Amino acid sequence: MSVIRKFTLNRNGIFTVNVSSENQCKVKGHTRYKYHVEIDCSGVLDSDGFIIDQLILHNNILKWVKERNISYSCEEYCQYISALISTILNNNKVVYDRIYIKVIPLPFNKSNGAYMELTTTYK
Description:
Blueprint: E1 6-16, E2 32-42, H1 54-68, H2 74-91, E3 96-106, E4 116-121
Helix pairs in contact: 1-2
């Protein structure tokens, strides 16, 4: 019998942009966003016993946001951050087949808040 291991890597964080957005679905002026990322990946671990250091993902997201100094819609953040994560995973030779990302403007009001989710699958 063969065994196949598949991990789901989870990462949460908050990023802040220096400019407020004009293209928001709820309230104009958001500058802080929470993100949640899930990555389905193979059970291949590196020499330190990890799939990838999750701080590499977080720090690169923060760097990417800071370098742009522009505010995007939540849909655009999902697309761009998903592509960034894919590049980081490829550069670190991580085998993966799904990236899920959720971007939530802060502060978030559960009764009338809006957020965006994106799932990208790779075959």
